[in-house]
Amino acid sequence: QGNDAMYLYNAFGNAASKLKVGDRIDGLVTGAGIRFNPATLEVTAFDYSNATITPDQEVPTVFTTVKALKEAFARYEYCRVKVEDVLVTDELTTSDQDGAIAQGEDTVILRAQVKNAIAIEKGTTIDLVAWPTYYYNKNTSTTTNQLGVWAQSDITAKGGEGRIEMQSTKVMTVGEHWTIGATCNSGATVSYASDD
């Protein structure tokens, strides 16, 4: 609601409890829940009978800085935020979902929320849309703040060394098909064209 947010975890996958990003709830919603840790409420049931749900609403974006996130992370937690002109200090790869960004001396961890789908190379300057969340390690009872990235399209590369990689040659027989498979270190989509 505005810049304020609250995290709810649907503990048992109840079909009646499933909401989509962009659903707007107006009215009174009641529920039952338990605490997983000091910060997380796990919801076991929802009752929407006194509320109206309107789907496909635009989720507001809060513009912020890495410094502001670090100083008051709980204020932004689970909001959709945008940070601009940040440097990737630890890359995300499709095989490693953890990375980091920095603005000046301030850094924050990145977490690719979708496996095998998001990549950005170290040294690239980017604009980023993400969801400030946290990782709770139950073995050590510690909490780590992080920015959750859900889609490659939420990363806009603005600078750094640009490089496209692909196999330089391929010997083919007539009728054979081959996927070129070029990749760009900024995560940008590579398109192809030929006049022959």
Q: What can you tell me about this protein's structure?
A:
- The longest helix is centred in the middle third of the chain and has 6 residues, at 66-71.
- The protein has helices spanning 66-71, 73-76; strands spanning 8-10, 24-37, 40-54, 61-63, 80-90, 98-103, 106-112, 125-137, 142-149, 155-159, 164-165, 183-184.
- 16% of the residues are buried.
- The strands form three sheets. It has a five-stranded mixed beta barrel. Strands 1-3-2 form a three-stranded mixed sheet, with no helix packed on it. A two-stranded antiparallel sheet has the order 11-12.
- By secondary structure, the chain is mainly β.
- It has two helices and twelve strands; from the N terminus they run ββββααββββββββ.
- The mean pLDDT is 82.
